[in-house]
Amino acid sequence: QLFATHPRLSHASRNKFHTSSPQQQQTIMSSSSTSSRTAISQSTYSNAQQIRVNHHSINLNINFEEKILHGYVEYDAEIVVDQDQLVQEFVLDARNLDIEQVEVNGETVEFEIKDMSTSKNSDSFGHPLHIPLASIRGEKKFKATVYYKTTPKSEALVWMDASQTKGKQKPFMYSQCQAIHARSLMPCQDTPEVKATFDALITCDDKDLVVIMGAIPKKSEHKSDFVFEQKVPIPSYLLFVAAGNLAAQKIGPRSTLYTEPEQIMDFAYEFEDTEKFIKAGEEFLPPYEWDQYNILVASPSYNFGGMENPNMTLCSASLLAGDKSNASVIVHEYSHSFSGNSVTCRDWRHFFLNEGGCVYVERRILARIYGQEYADFHALLALKSLNESVDHFLNVEGNPEFTKMVPDLEGIDPDDAFSSIPYEKGFNFLYYLTGVVGGFEPFEKFMYAYFSHFAKKCVDADEFKAFFLNFFQDSVAEEKLNTIEWDKWFYGVGGLPVQNKFDRTLADPVENLAKEWKNGTITGVESSKDVKEWKAIQFCYLLDLLQQKSDFTADELEKMDKTYKFTESRNSEIRFRWQILCIKSHYEKIYPEAEKFLSETGRMKFVRPITRALLRAKNGRQVAEKIKEHNKNFYMATTMKQLEKDFANLQ
Q1: CB neighbours of 84 closer than 8 A, spacing ≥ 6?
Q2: What is the pLDDT of residues 43-77, one digit of tens each?
Q3: How far is it, in rounded angstroms, from Cα 519 to Cα 549?
Q4: Nearest-5° angle of CA 402, CA 408, CA 413?
Q5: DSSP code string of 298-359
């Protein structure tokens, strides 16, 4: 709503509309002041360069019948520019919210939500909420309170009917705020650069449901009140709330698993090594500052493998394999406790610092638990998804900008640039730097210092570079440091500037077997004895290699399936790759399996590539259309948006 009013407000502001991009809008608002940093986030309308929110007090009721949250947020804010620079308003990001009333220091004030509908990607960026500050009379610190409702269009919130849950008894709701969806959960300074603590009191109209947040739960006076506190400052994209029929199971001294009762024991087994992962990280990382590391298994429609909400990792139900083979996702999300949650990219252009750093930490933990050859094999396997992402942006979307580690995102929804590039190009960059400075031992010491120095702060590529060069200036020869082509890594289009060398112990036997299948020299079912000791990740690599050939016959695919039982696998990573292989070879008998799989999971990692493969396959488009139509109320809004792009690009 452009001008959302509340009965208590006699006159909401009706100033003339203005239109511009978030960056242009903030430039206008900041033109009378000089910020401590010249960089302005490209995806926020807020005047975060002038005013910083330090703390949120959140009071909301969850209404499942109307599918809304209703209540208020109080902001402890501070003007951060010089006293002689006049700041006339407090500007927050808002999207698909019904703003009812606004107060500043307890006094009701008029407010304006400016129409940005003619701006590029206005559906993504929403509208700036302008709050006048005339009443604060020159004070630096002030409190503002916004009373509001979300709407059924609020993209941060996913509402699942009982029929869409595992138990099919009670509804389920959870939030997903990354990248810029927090503004549809509550008005906020929706940029990673602003970090704030919060406390919250959440109620729910269904008294049988459990409410959880990305925070530490506190005792409440009333059973129906759920009270939380987050003492570590976090950016808006890490705000998280969920409610459902949830059971709890301790899986470690500082970890509790939450999920529907019907699957609690299965996932408790799947994630029972969580404490082992945390302890491995403690061997080379700073102390864990978040107190608890808990896990919530999301509904099947959840579109990521996991989300690193502080104190409450949200993970996909697709991780359930029965043999812990997908538990490395938990290692990844735990690693975000340092890379992303504590040390955060300054804005979404520098997202590789979150994800590349996280993948590096993840693989250092995997190396400690399973050996360096296993961690390197992980990296080898991931090169395929990196190359596919680069190829997609270059040759399908025609958008080379998104192949950069630091892309220009002005006027761009960060979700549109999401791919494996910041993860794997970022990781390979850090792996390359590891070699430059002499190996894992000195680089782990650097990472410890980096996470300690920038803890609870934000960082960009230039700050990372400066800290790195300063750290190694006395221990690494200047000539070596001068060989690093920083701009080529940060701003180069395409794939990797340098190809790293990884241990091939686990890769070589897989590649040899793949050659036999591709050359047609495989002997048959007896070859299964050669893979008896293989890990699930090796089968994933085998399928990746086999996908390089797109003309396997039906007989060859059926022999393959009889040998390795791919269709019967419970491992979603294997199901995904097997179905892609079959679809590429136009093996139409796999289409019903693809329909079944994509009706069980909304994870974009699986949904988009299988859909793209079907759109290119013989008689596949009608199957893809059927899947999309059947699951339009099951997939998250962001997933549907990306699928529409895929259908448009692959006519």
Answers
A1: none
A2: 999 999 999 999 999 999 999 999 999 999 999 99
A3: 10
A4: 75
A5: PPTT--SSEE--TTEEEE-GGG--SSSTTTHHHHHHHHTTTBTTTEEESSGGGHHHHHHHHH
392: DSSP letter: I
| CB-based contact 531:564 (threshold 8 Å) | yes
For residue 574, the model assigns a pLDDT of: 97
Measure Cα distances from 84 to 31, 137, 140, 186, 376 in Å.
Answer: 14, 13, 11, 31, 56
CB 557 within 8 Å of CB 585: yes
Question: 337 with 293: CB under 8 angstroms?
Answer: yes
Q: Quote the CA–CA distance of 604 and 645 in Å, as a whole number.
A: 13
Share of the chain above pLDDT 70, in %: 92
User: Which whole number is the average pLDDT over 463-475?
Assistant: 98
For CA atoms 600, 66, 3, 25, the dihedral sign is: negative
- Residue 18 near residue 25 (C-beta atoms within 8 A): yes
Q: Which residues, in sequence order, are CB contacts of 145 under 8 Å at separation 6+?
A: 72, 73, 74, 75, 102, 103, 104
The CA distance from 173 to 158, in Å, is 6
Give percent of the chain above pLDDT 90: 83
* Strand ordering across the sheet containing 89-94: 89-94, 127-132, 112-113
Helix (H) or strand (E) holding 278: helix 274-282
Q: How many CA atoms lie within 13 A of 149 on its CB side?
A: 13
Query: What CA–CA distance (Å, rounded) separates 373 from 555?
Result: 35
Residue 491 CB partners (closer than 8 Å, separation 6+): 404, 405, 406
Sequence-separated (6 or more) residues with CB below 8 Å from residue 256:
248, 249, 250, 292, 294, 295
Sign of the alpha-carbon dihedral angle for 121, 195, 287, 465: positive
Residue 197: phi and psi, rounded to 5, are -80, 170
Give the gyration radius of the chain's Cα atoms: 25
Residue 155, both tokens = 């993209």
Coil/strand/helix, residue 492? coil
Structure tokens that stand for 555 in this block: 């007989």
Measure the CA–CA gap between 207 and 454, rounded to whole angstroms: 42
In Å, how far are 366, 585, 587, 622 from 618, measured between CA atoms?
40, 9, 9, 10
Helix 421-437 crosses helix 351-370 at what angle (to 10 degrees)?
Answer: 70
Q: Give the chain's largest Cα–Cα span.
A: 84
DSSP secondary structure of 570-628? --HHHHHHHHHHHHHTT-GGGHHHHHHHHTT---HHHHHHHHHHHHHSTTTHHHHHHHH
Token reading at 489: 């890594």
> What would the pLDDT profile of 182-199 be if each residue is shown by its tens digit?
999 999 999 999 999 999
- φ/ψ (deg, to 5) at 216: -90, 125
Distance CA 293, CA 254 (A): 6
Nearest to 77 by CA among 56, 103, 46: 56
**Model pLDDT, residue 6:** 34
Residue with tokens 């709330």: 241
Distance, CA of 284 to CA of 144 (rounded, Å):
42
**CA 315 – CA 303 distance, rounded (Å):** 10
**Residue 364: burial class (beta carbons within 10 Å; 0-12, 13-18, 19+):** buried
Q: Which of 147, 111, 149 is nearest to 130 (CA)?
A: 111
Q: What is the 3-state secondary structure (H, E, C) of 369-381?
A: HHCHHHHHHHHHH
Residues designated as active site:
333, 423
Distance CA 502, CA 518 (A): 24
